[in-house]
Write a structure and sequence with these properties.
- This protein is an alpha/beta fold and about 280 residues long.
- The protein has a domain at about 10-190 and about 225-230: NADP-dependent oxidoreductase domain (TIM Barrel), CATH 3.20.20.
- About 40% of the residues lie in helices and about 15% in strands.
- The chain has ten helices and ten strands.
- The strands form two sheets. An eight-stranded parallel sheet has the order 3-4-5-6-7-8-9-10.
- Strand 4, helix 2 (about 55-65) and strand 5 form a beta-alpha-beta unit.
- The relative contact order is 0.15.
- The structure holds NADP nicotinamide-adenine-dinucleotide phosphate.
- NADP nicotinamide-adenine-dinucleotide phosphate binds near residues 192 and 231.
């Protein structure tokens, strides 16, 4: 299956797949098999993190797929404990994955109480200058975190990966990213399924297009201009999720799904101003 691509806001000559693969918590031989089946289905963007403890599995799946290295975008994330050693952290990732360069690296969480995310950003800038990583970005950044690192270094992240699903449509953060030329990536893009798939706005869009509720939510993501990173270990759902990138919802359907947003829509109360992950 070929996936629609989109130009990267920060580098319009670079095309990114409209949908990528989330890999948490895929691990071990089952994890490798799941990632390999995703690559066989057509995924060309894989999202991992040091803290998922599966970078090695991503590398193995890539190798087993036989795909040329340049055909698959590999993204990882620097954990909070490595903010003061971000460049070294990227070097370790390259060793673990047996790669010469990783396509993108994000700061996983700002962990503001430790106040080291600016140092992490400077470390990623250095890693990019040394040719260890092609694109550098952030995850779970609010506007004030973004503006601090941009003002201090003059370097804007290529992407901001945030919790984004119909219960948390993140309208303001998406607008702030877009104004700065930053791609918004969505974690937990289908809110891990569950109640969301029973919402009338979702089931109506799914029925109208002859697709599943999960596909309707992913089509909504793509309509917003966000890049969703759904995780699935199931080959059929992997294919379905990828196919959703080609479904065009109507404006009314998009608006109805966006209206599911709630003030307390976060799945586990992980507000980046308070939530810390090391
Ligand atoms: N930056 C961050 O702080 C952060 C935080 C959390 C997650 N992430 C990233 O975002 C990725 C995705 O987030 P997530 O795994 O939390 O949530 P998600 O992708 O919204 O949901 C994954 C769950 O939904 C099921 N599923 C997938 N496709 C489905 C479909 N079409 N219909 C029904 N069920 C479906 C999966 O089960 P099956 O496997 O059985 O299909 C899995 O249980 C992660 O893997 C990770 O890469 C990043």
């Amino acid at each position: 299956m070929s996936i629609p691509t989109r130009p990267l806001p920060s580098a319009p000559d670079v095309e990114l797949p409209a949908i990528g693969l989330g890999t948490y918590p895929l691990r071990g031989s089952d994890g490798v098999a799941a990632m390999r089946s995703a690559l066989e289905a057509g995924y060309r963007f894989v999202d991992t993190a040091v803290n998922y403890r599966n970078e090695r599995e991503v590398a193995e799946a890539l190798q087993q797929s036989g795909l040329p290295r340049e055909d698959v975008w590999v993204q990882t994330k620097v954990p909070g404990r490595d903010h003061r050693g971000a460049r070294r952290c990227v070097e370790t990732t390259l060793q673990v994955m047996d790669l010469e360069v990783v396509d993108s690296v994000l700061i996983h969480w700002p962990n503001p109480s430790r106040d080291e995310y600016l140092a992490a950003w400077e470390g990623l800038i250095e890693a990019r200058e040394r040719g260890l990583v092609r694109h550098i970005g952030v995850s779970n950044f609010h506007v004030h975190h973004l503006d601090r690192i941009i003002e201090a270094t003059g370097v804007t992240p290529f992407a901001n990966q945030i919790e984004l699903h119909p219960y948390l449509p993140q309208e303001e953060m998406r607008a702030a990213d877009s104004e700065r030329g930053i791609l918004t990536q969505s974690w937990s893009p289908i809110a891990r399924g569950g109640d969301l798939f029973e919402e009338p706005a979702v089931t109506a869009a799914a029925e109208a297009h002859g697709i599943s509720p999960g596909q309707a939510v992913l089509a909504w993501q793509v309509s917003l201009g966000a890049m969703p990173l759904p995780k699935s270990a199931d080959p059929q759902r992997q294919r379905d999720n990828l196919a959703a990138a080609s479904v065009a919802l109507t404006e009314a359907e998009v608006d109805a799904i966006s209206a599911l947003g709630r003030p307390d829509g976060r799945l586990f109360d992980a507000d980046p101003d308070h939530h810390e992950e090391l």
